[in-house]
Every structure is written in C-alpha cells, then in structure tokens.
From TrEMBL:
The keyword Kinase applies. Keywords: Kinase, Transferase. Belongs to the ROK (NagC/XylR) family. Coiled coil: none annotated. The keyword Heme does not apply. It comes from the Bacteria. It comes from Adhaeretor mobilis. This is Glucokinase. Its EC number is 2.7.1.2. Pfam families: ROK (PF00480). The gene is glcK_1. Gene3D superfamilies: 3.30.420.40.
Amino acid sequence: MSLDSLKHVSIAGREVSLRIGVDMGGSDIKFGATDLDAELILLPDLVKLPSLSQQGPQKTISQIITGIGAVLEELGAKWAQVATIAVTVPCPCSPDGVILEVTNLGTPDTKHLWEVPFGELLATAVEAEAGCTIPTFACNDANAAGQDDDFTRFGLKTDSRTCLFITTGTGMGGCVIVNGSVFYGIGQAGELGHMKIAVPSGYENRFSADPNPPCGCGGQKCVETRASLTGLIRRVTWALSDAGVDLIKAELEAEGREFNPETVAKLRELYEVAPKRAAYEVRTFADAHKDEFCRWLLEDWAIMIGALFASLAPALHPDLLIIGGGMTEISGDAQAWFLDVVKKSYAQTNAQRSFESKPGNCEIVWSVSTDQGWRGAILMGIRAGQA
Ligand SMILES: [Zn+2]
C-alpha cells in the first residue's frame, strides 16, 4: 500500500493521510491504521503488544507509543502524517477521554492508578514523541465495537436508525447507536450489561438455586451476571454439583434432549484442576459436540439476552438488536441454535406485536464486525468531530 496514493489534507501545517486506531484490552493492545475516511484498512495484520495494564497508565501509554511507532514503520510513514489517534479502553470513559470507573484494568493494588484523564496523558506522550500535536481520542471499547458494526452495515450515513449493540464475552458491554452515532446520555448511556433484567416466565426453575447473582459493579441481578463468561464460571460450580446435575438432567429429559453423563465427568475432571478451564470448555462442547448439558448452560446467556432486548425494545423501538463479542466465534450451526433461544426468550418476554422481532423492526442479528474495535475508535473520533 503506497501512502502517496491515499487522499491527504493539510491540517495545522501538516500533510496528513492516515488515522491510527488502538484497541486496548486488559492484557493486549492491538493497533491498526486506516485512510482518512476510515474505509481502507492499511495494515493486513494488526500490530499486537502486551498492555502492561497491571503496572498503571503510564506504562500502558508508553506501550501505545511503541505500537504506533511499529505501525508507522511497517507503513513507511512519519508521525507527522497521522491525522488522529483513537484508543479504546475496557472501562467506562467520558467523551473527553477521562476513565470514569476502573473495571477491567490493573490489579486490585494498581487500580487506583487508573482513574485518570487517559486521553490527555496520551496526547502529551504523543506530542513528546511526534514533535507535533496530533489529536487523540479515548472511548469505551463496547461503544467502539458497536460503532464499527454500524459502519460495516451503513458506512458513514447518518440517516434515521437506532441500533442496540451488546458484546458478550468476559463481561457484557453495550451501546446505543442513533443515526450512526454512539449515544452517551450525560456520559455513560449504553451500559446494557448492568441492567437488572427479570428472568422471563417459564425459565425461573433453572435459576432457582442462584436467585441474586452478584455483579462486579457491586449490584445484583445485572444481566451480565448471567450472560457472560464471568457468570458461567460462577454457574459451573453449581452445575457440576449433584443438585445442579440433577436439575439440568431433569430439564433436558423433560424436553426429550439427550443427557450425556460422560460430559459431566469430563467437566468435573477439568474443574478439579481449574474451574475456569471447565467454563471455557462448556462453549467448546456446546458447539463442536452439540452437547445438550453444555448447551443448556449457554442457554442462560441466550435467555437473558432475549429478555434484555425485549425489555429495551419498548423504550427505544430499534431497527436492530445486535449480538457481538466472543460469542460470535461459535460455528454457524451453533449461532443458529443460540439465536433461536434468544428469539424464543424475546417473544416470551415481549408479546406486544408492535415490538415483534422481524426484519426492519427490532430484528435480532449477529454482529458483522470482527475484532475491529480499533477502527470503531477511529470512527467515534470522526463522529465526535475529529478532523
Ligand atoms: Zn452490574
């Protein structure tokens, strides 16, 4: 890719032609670059570095500077050619780049280092390295993922539409996108994972042993506690107990589904070594082996996602309800099964015909964006008025 062939404009005495996007996770940082319109992805593979987030924001910021340097080197570009830098953070963040509440960064000891004007600190570090001022922008990662999904579907169009996006993985992030732009409210709108959603009728039995699941936010019954890997890790302890196995087996048999005792034996073996390991394998067994015990456990997520969407639909009457994040990595067959359960729970919770899920009206779909939070951050910067 020759940079000379890209569109370039002059800003503050600099000829700029590219934008840098950075996706900062709790453990890794990914870097990508686009042209000014965010349409052309300039690097075939993302640059990836450890985030060092355990050691506080300054270490992470120097990793970001190193990563951007590596991107520029691969592209044969100079700092002065960079129009904007946009970074995602895995925690609530105000539109001006202040980390509001530290959720997924650092250790219990270093967390207090993270309530910082991250955008400002980054801008200072960039200026020191680049020798010029490059506008920087920091945003929440779920917002960025939602923004990228919207862009993938609709480009930079701003016509009337509303999309609700959730990302399910370790936790549950979310965002509301109105006419192509992330809706902030007075700062943190779209934290959909922390909505307190009732278990839909007909599904109470499965949650009877776990009626008030605690959330990392300090609350109880947030939808994230039942539709996330964190929730599943807590859930597996119960599911592999005698009482858990008995309840799940009875429910499966009542529905004419197969219960395979070997799966339970395997999961118990894994659980002995590491409970988290057992939780990871639940998804693999549910997908690759279509194991019904594991599918029953993942149905927790699907049921609660359906209930969440059904509760939001009357408030926002969206065009699309979009599921993104780690769960999108399952096979096509497993995706179809999962979406069926989501839709069934949605219909069970929301019987109003005007909010029926169908094409063009509260339609529930999988995300079409893959691993491009970094580009979502660039797009959010553009939408926020970055030149
Ligand atoms: Zn919560």
